[in-house]
């Protein structure tokens, strides 16, 4: 099974949980991106790894003309419901079905680290960018800078250790990795920032649903029952309980903007 097929299946297990209980916490990252890009009316934007279409919706509201791709049909269906009339396609980051120099902006939030070949995916993004166009990459910061790491680690106890270089949440997070790949693909890094994205849940149940909507949790369901995986998530959330049924995770993301 290809990386695209595998990731598409995993992220289609509980897409509504991702859409409602997880992706909205990326809003600080999305808002900082839009503020820095200052999209011009009619700018053509490819949301590469569009998920359930939240950023696509925000870009449209800022005047962009948007197309989206994702490997997960479940997430794509939600993106279409959120953005009627917009083309959302089930495609591979490493083989984009677009002509060269088609887009003013290509964005990839929480997506490029799941490509089977990161460098190939970035080369494809560069290929479809117009000269002077912008590539946006938003990824998790290094694991030690995010509380969510501990929840994902708990989920991973159901899974065998992944081989080196395996796609995953933190595959591109180490110091200098994105910068090095951008340099090899002749993309000019013009902006980078660390963005705080706190996760605040108003019930333990909502926090469990949030992580059950992720690919790692879907993979764990191939090895354990839903009840077992949910219990591990609930137990891992206990250190982040604030009282009054509030749960808070402090998380850090990295934002890179490069120019072709």
Helix content: 25-40%
Q: Main β-sheet, in a few words?
A: 7 strands, mixed
CATH architecture annotation name: 3-Layer(aba) Sandwich
Give the helix tally: 11
Q: SSE string, helix = H, strand = E? A: HHHEHEHEEHEHHEEHHHEEE
State the total count of DSSP E strands. 10
- Enter the CATH topology name: Rossmann fold
- Estimate the mean pLDDT confidence: 94
C-alpha geometry: globular
Whole-number radius of gyration? 18 Å
Strand content: 15-25%
Output the structural class.
alpha/beta
Low-confidence stretches: none
Strand ordering within the main sheet:
3-2-1-4-5-10-6
Oligomeric grouping of the chains:
single chain
How far the N terminus sits from the C terminus, by CA atoms, comes to 33 Å
CATH class: Alpha Beta
Number of domains: 1
CATH superfamily: Vaccinia Virus protein VP39
């Amino acid at each position: 099974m290809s990386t695209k097929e595998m990731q598409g299946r995993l992220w289609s297990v509980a897409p509504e949980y991702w859409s409602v209980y997880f992706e909205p916490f990326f809003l600080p990252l999305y808002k900082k991106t839009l503020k820095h890009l200052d999209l011009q009316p009619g700018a053509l934007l490819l949301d590469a790894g569009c998920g359930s279409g939240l950023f696509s919706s925000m870009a449209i509201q800022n005047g962009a003309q948007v197309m989206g791709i994702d490997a997960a049909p479940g997430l794509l269906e939600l993106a279409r419901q959120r953005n009627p009339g917009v083309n959302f396609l089930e495609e591979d980051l490493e083989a984009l079905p677009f002509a060269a120099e088609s887009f003013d902006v290509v964005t990839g939030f929480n997506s490029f680290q799941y490509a089977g070949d990161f460098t190939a995916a970035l080369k494809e993004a560069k290929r479809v960018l117009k000269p002077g166009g912008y590539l946006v990459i938003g990824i998790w910061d290094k694991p030690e800078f995010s509380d969510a790491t501990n929840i994902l680690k708990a989920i991973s106890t159901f899974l065998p250790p992944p081989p080196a270089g395996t796609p995953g949440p933190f595959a591109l997070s180490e110091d200098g990795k994105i910068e090095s790949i951008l340099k090899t693909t002749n993309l000019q890094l013009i902006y980078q920032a660390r963005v705080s994205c706190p996760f605040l849940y108003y019930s333990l149940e909502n926090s469990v649903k949030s992580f059950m909507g992720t690919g790692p949790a879907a993979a764990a369901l191939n090895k354990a029952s839903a009840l077992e995986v949910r219990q591990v998530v609930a137990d891992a959330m206990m250190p982040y309980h604030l009282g009054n049924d509030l749960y808070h995770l402090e998380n850090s993301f990295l934002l890179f903007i490069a120019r072709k």
